[in-house]
Amino acid sequence: MLYNEWLKFRRSGLFWTLPVVGLFSPLLFMGLRLSEKLRFADSQTMPWTEYFGNEKIFYCFFIVLIWMGLIAGQLISREYTDHTVSILYTYPASRISIILSKTVIVGFIVLLCQAFEFTGLYFTSWIYKGEVMPANILVQELQRTGISLLGQLALVPLFVWLSQLGRSILLPIIAAIGLMITNPMVVVINPTSYSPFSMYVSPYVSIISGSPALPVGRLLLVDLMMFVVTMSILLFHTVKMEIRS
Predict the structure, then answer these.
(1) DSSP letter for each residue of 157-204
(2) Cβ contact 79:95 at 8 Å
(3) Phi, psi of 241 (to 5 degrees)
(4) How many other C-beta atoms lie within 10 A of the C-beta of residue 4?
C-alpha cells in the first residue's frame, strides 16, 4: 500500500516540484546575501549560525506548512476528484491501514523536502561564505534540523485529517495560511511559547530573538502530544466517516 501511494505521488505534478520547493529557500537566501555584499562593499559576511537561523526561519514559516497542506490535500482529495474513494475502501484492507499509508507517505515527502533544503543550504552557504562549513557547526545544524523535522512530522496527521474532513485541498491550505500568519505573531510575542503548532521552528527562534533556547526534552514532549492527539482524531474520523465520492 505504501508503494501504491508513492506511485500516486510520482505520477502527480507535485513530484517534480519537490526539489524546487526544497531548494527555493536556500537559493533565495544566498541570492539576497550575495546581492547585499555586492551593493555594499563594507558589508560583513554573516556568521554561520545567524545565516542558518535566518534561512531556516524563512523556510519553516513560509514554505513547510503550505507544502505539507498541498501534499496531504493532493493525496486525499484526489480520491474524491477521481471518484476512486468508494473503490479504494472496498479493498481487502482496513480503513486504518489505508489512511496510515497515506500519512506515512506525506511524512516521507516532508522528510525528502527537508533533505533537499538542508543539502541546498550546505552548498549555498559554502558559496556565500567561501569556505566549507566547520564540522562542529554541521553537527549542530543537523541536530537542530532533526528537532525541527520531528515538529513538522507531528503536524502531518493534522493536515491529513483536514484533507479528509474537507474532501478537498482547500481546508488544509486555509489552515496552512492561517498558521503562517499566526505562528510568527506567537513567536514575536513570546519566543519561549510552547505552542504545538510552532514547535518545528523553535530550534531557530532563539538565534534570531536572543531568547534562551527551549529545552529539547520539552519540545519533543509537546511534539509527541501533538502527534498522539491529531493521529487519534484522524483515526477516529476515518473509522466513523461515511464513504461517498
Answers:
(1) HHHHHHHHHHTSSHHHHHHHHHHHHHHHHHHHH-TT---TTSGGGHHH
(2) no
(3) -70, 155
(4) 12
Contacts with 185 (C-beta within 8 Å, 6 or more apart), sequence order: none
Q: Which helix (DSSP H) or strand (DSSP E) does residue 196 occupy?
A: none
What's the chain's Rg over C-alpha atoms?
19
- pTM for this prediction: 0.89
pLDDT digits (tens, 9 = 90+) for 75-106: 887 776 666 665 555 554 577 888 898 899 99
Per-residue pLDDT tens over the stretch 12-55: 888 889 999 999 999 999 998 888 877 766 667 788 888 888 89
Q: CA triplet 39, 134, 118: central angle to 5 degrees?
A: 75
Q: 169: which 3 cell numbers?
A: 485541498
